[in-house]
Amino acid sequence: MREVNVGPASQFADPGRRVIAFERLEIAVFKLDREFFAYLNLCPHMGGPACQGKMIAKVEETITEDRASRGMQFSKTKMHVVCPWHGYEFDVRTGVHPGNPRARLRKLAVRVSGDDVIVGLPESAERDKPQLDPTSSRPTH
Ligand code: FES
Q: Does any ligand 1 atom lie closer than 6 A to the CB of residue 88?
């Protein structure tokens, strides 16, 4: 597997991200709670630049035992990135769409060596694989 150095870990905002063009790929690297996560910047819905969208805490609804809503609030632990084309959201830590786990960003290996953030690049054949299981229904949002 080829790897690319995307820069010093200490220069990433937390939470934050960078989108880097490398050869024919766009790679997104997120930093969240001192951990790094990397994906291809390619939405499984229609190929939009999913990783360039807003980063926003997951919106959660509290439901009481009698199934009444106690209202919505932002998660204190989960962060999403929202694709700017049609609004699909993906968990920054897993790359998975919260409403359809088959819809997910293509995850890349990432590690920190010294202060360098190193991302593993997919093999060329792997780059072109569909990211959404073709037997699944389209995710809804
Ligand atoms: S291309 Fe990302 S939501 Fe449609």
A: yes
Question: How many domains does the structure of the chain reveal?
Answer: 1
In a domain, 52, yes or no: yes
- Tell whether ligand 1 has an atom less than 6 A from the beta carbon of residue 50: yes
Total-model pTM: 0.85
Phi-psi region of 41 (alpha: psi -120 to 50; beta: other; left: phi over 0): beta
Q: Is residue 10 part of a domain?
A: yes
> What is d(CA 66, CA 121) in angstroms, rounded to the nearest whole number?
49
pLDDT in tens, 84-101: 999 999 999 999 999 999
Is 88 among the domain residues? yes
Among 88, 140, 141, residue to substitute to test ligand 1 (most atoms within 8 Å of Cβ): 88
